[in-house]
């Protein structure tokens, strides 16, 4: 299955090339938002309070997604990982039959060893960028810890959700946001 280089449109700070995340809108602001959410909310927050063995697993999932992630878009496989997008040589290498392409399954991906000084012998391919994010969310939900966390974009703080009052406040906030969304949708009809 050929790998195509992702359309260049701007935004990612971690790589020297900026790229559109497959399956997302094509503005730089939306690209950065999708990438930042992936890195910080999906993986970074999952690490807070996690036992050491899960930190290592999350780091490996990070390596094979944020750094060296591939996903399908239509009939093509596209690169979205910053490590791939910043290395023309590794992008070319991805196009060969040398590396092994495996389905992205975080429970298996987290066990894969990887070299840090040479091209990857194995890459994991998600069905889509959204599929990869959802699988990471599900994987993060099995991490044993006595609390949950979320990033509050309004306060720009991480909130620890460990009591019923915090959960009620969160539910009220979500309810208010849903009301705004429903009103906007009705006005578009």
UniProtKB/TrEMBL annotation:
Gene3D superfamilies, per the entry? Aromatic amino acid hydroxylase
Q: Which Enzyme Commission number(s) are on file for it?
A: 1.14.16.1
Residues the entry annotates as binding Fe cation: 67
Q: Which InterPro entries match?
A: ArAA_hydroxylase, ArAA_hydroxylase_sf, Aro-AA_hydroxylase_C_sf, Aromatic-AA_hydroxylase_C
Cofactor field: Fe(2+)
- Pfam families linked to this entry: Biopterin_H
Keyword Oxidoreductase found? yes
Q: What class of enzyme is it?
A: oxidoreductase
Domain called Biopterin-dependent aromatic amino acid hydroxylase family profile: residue spans: 1-189
Keywords attached to this Swiss-Prot or TrEMBL record, sorted alphabetically, are:
Iron, Metal-binding, Monooxygenase, Oxidoreductase
One GO molecular function term? iron ion binding
Family that this chain belongs to: Belongs to the biopterin-dependent aromatic amino acid hydroxylase family.
Q: Which PANTHER family match?
A: AROMATIC AMINO ACID HYDROXYLASE, PHENYLALANINE-4-HYDROXYLASE
Q: What is this protein called?
A: phenylalanine 4-monooxygenase
């Amino acid at each position: 299955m050929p790998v195509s280089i992702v359309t260049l449109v701007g935004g990612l700070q971690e790589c020297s090339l900026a790229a559109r995340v497959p399956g997302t809108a094509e503005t730089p602001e939306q690209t950065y938002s999708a990438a930042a959410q992936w890195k910080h909310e999906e993986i970074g927050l999952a690490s807070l309070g996690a036992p050491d063995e899960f930190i290592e697993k999350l780091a490996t999932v990070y390596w094979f997604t944020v750094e060296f992630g591939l996903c399908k878009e239509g009939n093509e496989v596209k690169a979205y990982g910053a490590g791939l997008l910043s290395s023309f040589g590794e992008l070319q290498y991805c196009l060969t039959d040398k590396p092994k392409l495996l389905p992205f399954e975080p429970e298996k991906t987290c066990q894969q060893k990887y070299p840090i000084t040479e091209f990857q012998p194995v890459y994991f391919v998600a069905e889509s960028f959204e599929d990869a994010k959802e699988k990471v969310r599900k994987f993060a939900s099995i991490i044993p810890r006595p609390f949950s966390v979320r990033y509050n974009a309004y306060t720009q703080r991480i909130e620890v959700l460990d009591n019923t009052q915090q959960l009620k406040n969160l539910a009220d906030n979500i309810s208010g946001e849903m009301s705004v969304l429903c009103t906007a949708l009705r006005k578009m009809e």
